[in-house]
Amino acid sequence: MLEFVFTRRFAMAHRLIHGSSEICATPHGHNEEVRVYLKPVEIKPLDGKQNVVVPFQQAKTTWHRFIDGSVDHAFQLAENDPLVEWFKQHEPQRLSRLLITPGDPTTELLACLLMSKLNCFLTVEQSGLHCEQIEIMETPTNTVRFTGNPLEFIPNTRPPEQCWWRRADMSMSELEG
Ligand SMILES: Nc1nc2c(c(=O)[nH]1)N=C([C@H](O)[C@H](O)COP(=O)(O)OP(=O)(O)OP(=O)(O)O)CN2
């Protein structure tokens, strides 16, 4: 099987407030790498002329726009983190820089959320591609790899229309508009 593998770097901050790791309960940051594996939805031979499944630029432009324009330097917070309220009250102009997650923003959850978002882009753009695997390198010594249907793994706590990871847009929360 043929696959496209695209890698992007981003900086982020987060904290885990629900008790899995006390050291991670204070806000801290990582320089992370996200690697996605895209496969054609349909198997057909190359055409003998251009010989592309899809041009790379077409396959990755929206995804990279999302990673570079939204995820890069975002602050990832659980939806019930008191810091969300703090930003609402003190820095509402920065709400669009918050990436809000159902429960703690761990790397395994982020992998599933980003994969779901990417598949929304690929579907809406009728790219003929589907992401079946994603890896997030949180630190040089910790990587999470996810393969499968991310919606089976993401906590089921909100109606679909309130899930930014199910929309083909640049949003990372429901905090605005
Ligand atoms: N299952 C998970 N466990 C932890 C996560 C996570 O996302 N999923 N995240 C963290 C923290 O974000 C922490 O900053 C990174 O963990 P840590 O292992 O301390 O990172 P190091 O690179 O410093 O690890 P070394 O073993 O020292 O190389 C914690 N747990």
TrEMBL record:
UniProt signal peptide: none
SUPFAM superfamilies with a match to the protein in the record: Tetrahydrobiopterin biosynthesis enzymes-like
Pathway(s) per entry: Purine metabolism; 7-cyano-7-deazaguanine biosynthesis
Xref: InterPro entries: 6-PTP_synth/QueD (IPR007115), 6-PTP_synth/QueD_sf (IPR038418)
Keywords: Lyase, Metal-binding, Zinc
Enzyme class: lyase
Segments forming a coiled coil: none
Reaction catalyzed: 7,8-dihydroneopterin 3'-triphosphate + H2O = 6-carboxy-5,6,7,8-tetrahydropterin + triphosphate + acetaldehyde + 2 H(+)
Cofactor: Zn(2+)
A single MF term (Gene Ontology): 6-carboxytetrahydropterin synthase activity
EC number: 4.1.2.50
Family stated for the protein in its record: Belongs to the PTPS family. QueD subfamily.
Function statement: Catalyzes the conversion of 7,8-dihydroneopterin triphosphate (H2NTP) to 6-carboxy-5,6,7,8-tetrahydropterin (CPH4) and acetaldehyde.
Designated name of the protein: 6-carboxy-5,6,7,8-tetrahydropterin synthase
Organism, as annotated: Commensalibacter communis
